[in-house]
Every structure is written in C-alpha cells, then in structure tokens.
User: Fold this.
Amino acid sequence: KPAVKDNHLITTNSIFDNQLLKLETSELNILEMLILNGKQNQHTSIEDLNKVLGLTKKNVNIQKKQRSDLIISLNRKLAFLMQQKEEIILKKRKPIDKRSFDYLGRV
Assistant:
C-alpha cells in the first residue's frame, strides 16, 4: 500500500522500491476527499473540488481549467504508480444537470 510522507507518495511495490512519486498538496487533498467520499458511496462534486482547491471566487473558466489540469496530472501519476492505463479518477455527468459532473475514484 502506498504511504505518504512530506507530500510524497512512497510505494512499497518492488517495481517502485526506493522511488518517490511527488504529489502536490492540492493533489493529496483531492485524493483524500475522493477516498473518503468513496468509502461513503458518495461522488465528489465540482463545488467540493473548488472549495478544496481555493477556486470558489475565481472565474468559471479558470475553475474548469485548474480542475481539469489537476485531475489530468493526478490521473497520470496514479496510473503510473498503479501500472494501469485506465483513469483512476473518473467524472460522471450529474443526472439532474447533464452539463455538470461529479467525480469518483476507481481505486
């Protein structure tokens, strides 16, 4: 199981022995939120992501761009770590408003 120390994800998989995968604080916060929500069978909303990332008062286009960049970066790092090609963090359209998404972890 991966462990976190000083904002670095430390792996115990033999392929990654003695290697650190650097995660930004914001990535760790999002990952923690996704895991906690997933344990409660809940999706993570855009609003929740914006709060954690400090984007609530920013322009909507800036929010989208920064969320997208963060999710893409985190997906790449997690896919490398877990040796998977599929995305780890998925987005799912909200049933009520098809223009908006919720996020969930596939871990």
